[in-house]
Amino acid sequence: MRIFAPTRNVAVAVAIAAAVLPRLVVLAAERQSILTAYTEKSDDFARTLVDSGTFGFVAGHPSASTQPLYSFFLVPIYATLGRHWLAVGLAQIGLAAATAVLVYLIGRIVAPRFALLAAVVSTLNPYLIWHDVHINREITDQVVLAAIVLVALRVSRSTTVAGAALLGALAGIAILGNTRLALLPLVLAALLLVESRSIAASIVVVAAAAIVVTPWLVRNDVHVGCFALTTDARALWKANNPKTYETLAGGKWIDDVPQPSSFPPTPEDAAGIFHSTGRYPHVDECAQMRYFEHLATQYIEHHPGGKAKLAAQSARLLWDPRVHETQGRPGKGTWRDEARRVVEPVWAIPVFLAAIAGVAVGANRLFVALAVLLCAYNTLAAMVFAGTTRYRVPFDFLLVLLGAAAIDRYTRSTPAAAPSSVNDSSARRRAASP
User: Fold this and answer.
1) Is 420 inside any structural domain?
2) Crossing angle for the helix pair 184-196 and 161-177, to the nearest 10 degrees
3) Which of 219, 321, 341, 362 would bridge 348 by S-S if both were Cys, CB 3.0 to 4.6 A apart?
4) Tell me: the pLDDT tens digits for 380-404?
5) Which domain holds residue 328?
6) How many independent structural domains does the chain possess?
7) Which pTM does this prediction carry?
8) End-to-end alpha-carbon separation of the chain, Å?
């Protein structure tokens, strides 16, 4: 089967255009809400760091209650261009374009004739087109994951210390963006060990990740008081307590889980008190972290049946092709709800089915193993913490690539069309003529 094959430069340009153009339209339409709605605490941390040099909610009160990567992405934007919707939107669209290019490059390895198709389909995920232009920390997850997959595939072909170190460093960066990925270096090291049988390369992967993450751990130990990736263990408790299941089943999110009034104020609560009264209450983040970790662990140990229900619920919410609708969702009751129920499934369901086909036909064995491992890891993380659409979409490019690999293999195995009888007879006459 003959497939349209543009040059590499043309394909990259098309992938970038597919990422940029629809997001520019959404950015223009949403410009009034980019900095005023749907924001999260990484934005607060970035602003405080630029204004005062303190990484926290309030100047002079360092905090570790969030993973730092997205804040670090925002800081140079705020410091050089100011906190402006256009600057933030264009920078994030740039990340989306970079992700599209990375997906294309991965596609050249796993589905050479459909690499561009994979990049375009992946970047045109309706959820991402809207989500990518707003302030959200998942925008950094996908580009780092795509880079990890590309490097992992190349390192597996020719294992070098430099390649393994780069893979480990990227895994460390991924952890700084999403603490759910704390065990990712071990997953990558195990895969590399099986594929290359190089114990040294696997050790380098883990060591490089540790080198990237350790300065952040030391910073937290020195300035906050504990050697931890994040002190926000209250989120873990919100995802693991007797009220979580009914809260999620009722259309709410874990932030809506009822909390006893006796709970101490979080750093975010303390910042609210400070901004309204000028007084910053004492907050022991490390003690809170240990306390809420204990509560979550106790729930899991003493309510295994309840935790099993929660885990199943989280996995279902993670993989539901419809966007998870909560009572506090943006655009509730508007056209956005129809997009969540109809438009996103129209994109997601064919992608899911094509990905299953990619696994079934075993297209590119290493990539199938890597994609399945990463998706399984993300699912297990959701079952431990909580699952929802925005935690899945950074991994969706893997599903698109699996589908592209299946199509690539199928079209390669399809025999070319047989010549027509007219052409056959003409050929025989020409052969018989003197």
Assistant:
1) no
2) 160
3) 321
4) 999 999 999 999 999 999 999 999 9
5) 8-256+268-413
6) 1
7) 0.90
8) 34
